[in-house]
């Protein structure tokens, strides 16, 4: 090597070493924070009891490991995350803790990528600050440790931007191949990445023309990009076709989710809860005569399209309302509430909190990011603006929650770091009028993002619901004492919580404490008088108490509801009790209240 080349290589090596040290520092800080949270959360009874979406991902992954084949429900949600989870289970023998540890390591790597993105767009100082914002951002800490796809979605957001910018700068078309593969995997994780990936791909292919590059380079870049995307998407679509008969790499839940978030009674459908309410919604096409799962999806898609066509004003108003929800400083719950999760971790309670309508940390992140973009608009290339416009738009097109907003956080961390450090620099220089003006603009955006609401998703008692769902899962595992404790805690939080009464009633029935069971079923029916399952439980309990007339009356009412809902299994159970033609005469203790179908 010549002396000239050696002198040039030395600063490059030194710069790379400094970058590596900063990225390693951010990674270590992020990992330490996540390990502390994991240690605190592991002491909570709900830590090893997966519920709702986490439970679905876990079940899909375990079936794939045990049976070695994909089945239709595997493709209900995004393909990538349960596939990743199956890989961790295969390596660890099914350990959920191992999966969580892998995820927090990957989440810590994402923080280092945020650092790299900040340094690329600005400098090492802002890169380090952006990485630390991501490392200490409470919702990201929480999602990295949960059996959910939100952490991976945040990783893909940063990775896609870095790969897109790298492909734009590279002389070869090979980086475009990597961007295509990452895009395919991101869309297979969460379909809301699709609009951004498509727009970024178009920008990447057309960008060389701005510099006078030959059309041949643009064509090569397009070819490599498409090849990379198809390499990731086609295997998913092929597996889906074998399992479901439909050739698609998008999740099957798309039409249902579009309907949930876009209909005349949007707030009600968004708040349909796990359990019997969700079951009734998903079975609606079947009750109306749909012959297959594919037709079920077409029913929901038609209802969505019909709503858009028949009520364009209502649809537009709904989109505007959801855009306000997306910008809210608070973490909107879905099936999990960040503010309930704070109960199991002192660290999380510091990193995530509410003060009146103001929510931290998004209530500070968004205003600082807006300030950073306003101060340094030319620092952000087109893909960053495309992502910050199109990814939120894709979420708003369906429905909003804090979990679905998570991928924008690491991207916002870069302009937020720029805005924060600019404020610090103005204060250090004692440029008080300018510092005050910047602080006032940040405060104004914080207020604007907090005043709306509370929204429908915030009016639900997630604490009582969480204890109830955990109690039900423990009940299914025959951990009766722990189940009773969780259900009792739900009633302490919310004495009239119907599902908690229902499940305690089932526990009492299993212990032949029929008087107590009947009392709990009665209280549950006060909250949900139309529940034919509750009528069935109460009817069988009354029979076990020897109250034949009352029991048969409840069972006949339950049967009417079951017939209307086409619950064939429940109808058969009721008919076995009532007997052919006329009610039978069961002896006390002979009737199982649950019938094996606790709902």
Number of helices: 30
- Rg measurement, Å: 27 Å
Question: What is the distance, rounded to the nearest whole angstrom, between the alpha carbons of the first and last residues?
Answer: 74 Å
Structural class: mainly alpha
What helical percentage do the residues reach? over 70%
Major β-sheet strand ordering:
1-2
Strand content: under 5%
Sum up the overall morphology in one term: globular
pLDDT averaged over residues:
91
Low-confidence spans: 581-591
| Count of individual domains | 3
Largest sheet: 2 strands, antiparallel
Question: How many strands appear in the DSSP assignment?
Answer: 2
Set out the fold topology.
Elements: H1 3-41, H2 52-67, H3 80-92, H4 96-121, H5 124-136, H6 138-144, H7 150-169, H8 174-189, H9 194-210, H10 215-244, H11 254-261, H12 266-270, H13 276-282, H14 284-287, H15 293-310, H16 312-326, H17 338-341, H18 346-351, E1 353-355, E2 358-360, H19 362-375, H20 382-396, H21 402-405, H22 408-428, H23 432-448, H24 462-476, H25 480-493, H26 498-510, H27 514-527, H28 532-544, H29 548-565, H30 568-578
Give an overview in words.
It contains 30 helices and two strands. The protein has 599 residues and is mostly helical. Strands 1-2 form a two-stranded antiparallel ribbon. A hairpin with a 2-residue loop joins strand 1 and strand 2.
């Amino acid at each position: 090597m010549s002396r000239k080349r050696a002198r040039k290589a030395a600063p490059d090596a030194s710069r790379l070493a400094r970058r590596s040290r900063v990225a390693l520092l951010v990674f270590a800080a992020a990992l330490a924070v996540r390990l502390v949270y994991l240690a605190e959360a592991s002491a909570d009874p709900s830590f090893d009891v997966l519920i709702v979406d986490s439970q679905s991902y876990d079940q899909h992954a375990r079936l794939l490991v045990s049976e070695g084949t994909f089945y239709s429900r595997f493709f209900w949600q995004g393909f990538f995350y349960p596939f990743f989870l199956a890989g961790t289970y295969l390596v660890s023998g099914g350990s959920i803790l191992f999966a969580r540890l892998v995820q927090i390591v990957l989440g810590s790597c994402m923080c280092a990528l945020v650092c790299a993105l900040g340094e690329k767009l600005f400098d090492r100082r802002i890169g380090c600050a952006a990485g630390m914002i991501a490392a200490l951002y409470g919702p990201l800490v929480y999602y990295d440790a949960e059996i959910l796809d939100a952490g991976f979605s945040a990783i893909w957001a940063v990775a896609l931007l870095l790969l897109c910018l790298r492909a734009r700068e590279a002389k070869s078309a090979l980086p475009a191949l990597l961007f295509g593969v990452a895009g395919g995997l991101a869309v297979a994780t969460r379909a809301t990445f699709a609009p951004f990936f498509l727009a970024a791909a178009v920008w990447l292919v057309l960008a060389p023309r701005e510099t006078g590059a030959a059309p041949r380079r643009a064509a090569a870049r397009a070819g490599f990009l498409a090849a990379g995307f198809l390499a990731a998407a086609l295997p998913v679509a092929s597996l889906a076709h074998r399992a479901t008969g439909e050739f698609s790499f998008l999740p099957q839940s798309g039409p249902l989710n579009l309907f949930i978030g876009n209909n005349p009674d949007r707030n009600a459908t968004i708040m349909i809860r796990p359990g019997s309410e969700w079951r009734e919604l998903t079975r609606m096409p079947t009750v109306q005569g749909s012959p297959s799962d594919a037709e079920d999806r077409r029913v929901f898609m038609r209802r969505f399209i019909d709503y858009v066509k028949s009520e364009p004003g209502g649809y537009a108003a709904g989109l505007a309302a959801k855009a306000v929800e997306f910008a809210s400083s608070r973490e909107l719950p879905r099936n999990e509430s960040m503010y309930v999760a704070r109960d199991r971790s002192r660290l999380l309670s510091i990193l995530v909190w509410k003060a009146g309508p103001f929510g931290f940390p998004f209530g500070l992140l968004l205003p600082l990011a807006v300030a950073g973009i306003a101060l340094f608009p030319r620092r952000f290339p087109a893909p960053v603006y495309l992502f910050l416009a199109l990814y939120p738009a894709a979420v708003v097109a369906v429905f909003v929650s804090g979990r679905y907003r998570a991928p924008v956080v690491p991207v916002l961390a870069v302009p937020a770091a720029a805005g924060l450090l600019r404020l610090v620099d103005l204060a250090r220089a004692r440029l008080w009028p300018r510092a005050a003006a910047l602080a006032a603009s940040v405060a104004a955006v914080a207020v604007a993002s907090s005043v709306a609401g509370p929204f429908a998703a915030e009016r639900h008692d997630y604490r009582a619901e969480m204890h109830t769902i955990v109690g039900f899962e423990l009940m299914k595992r025959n951990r009766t004492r722990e189940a009773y404790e969780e259900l009792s805690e739900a009633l302490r939080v919310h004495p009239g919580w119907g599902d908690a009464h229902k499940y305690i009633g089932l526990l009492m029935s299993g212990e032949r404490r029929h008087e107590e069971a009947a009392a709990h079923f009665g209280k549950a029916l006060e909250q949900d008088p139309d529940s034919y399952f509750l009528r069935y439980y109460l009817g069988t309990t009354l029979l076990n108490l020897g109250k034949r007339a009352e029991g048969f009356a409840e069972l006949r009412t339950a049967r009417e509801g079951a017939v209307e809902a086409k619950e064939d299994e429940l109808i058969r159970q009721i008919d076995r009790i009532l007997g052919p033609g006329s009610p039978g005469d069961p002896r006390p203790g002979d009737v199982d209240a649950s019938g094996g179908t606790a709902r």
